[in-house]
Amino acid sequence: DAGITQSPRHKVTETGTPVTLRCHQTENHRYMYWYRQDPGHGLRLIHYSYGVKDTDKGEVSDGYSVSRSKTEDFLLTLESATSSQTSVYFCAISEGPSTDTQYFGPGTRLTVL
Amino acid sequence: DQQVKQNSPSLSVQEGRISILNCDYTNSMFDYFLWYKKYPAEGPTFLISISSIKDKNEDGRFTVFLNKSAKHLSLHIVPSQPGDSAVYFCAAIIFNNDMRFGAGTRLTVKP
After folding, report:
1. Of A41, A94, B26, B51, whose CB is crowded by the most CB atoms within 10 A?
2. Residue B49: its chain A contacts at CB < 8 A?
3. pLDDT digits (tens, 9 = 90+) for A27-41
4. Domains in chain B, start-ordered, CATH in brackets?
């Protein structure tokens, strides 16, 4: 298994509070991704990174920001959480662009009350 | 606007028989397609992929077929095994790093 961890694995928070999810990899892969999974939608790309300090928006980036200060860490921040951001969040990594195999982390279940 | 569609939310087959999972897409610019498998409480794992220049790719018990004119791809699992029971996601890539997923099909293989 690719060395990807996500923390926390579960979180319950209240509307309006900031939340940061962390993805950590030990594979030294250049690309990292954040997805959310919702019933009826599959997985949707939020943001991705193609290198340290290099990030770009995905399909559903509104309300989210990311940062990557080190190769191994990719942070996803919800500046002011809303109930519509209740979801399961997956981090993924790949050596190259998304035509390379993406390896997914175990997921973080976030509930916004 | 869901550009990748898996119209069957669930599929049940008998062990040893063939499982056929289907996926349709609307954007003819997609040029690379993948299937991922997901068990509960785990992240998706890559299963098999196919480039738009091919119409078939095979890997052991898994075969993916691509019909570009119909904008349709399918995943065949032969023979199906109980351990194949999972949610299968179809995904398509348009330009680098823009991967769109279908909603998933839950496959149940009965012993």
Report:
1. A94
2. 99, 101
3. 999 999 999 999 888
4. 4-110 (2.60.40.10)
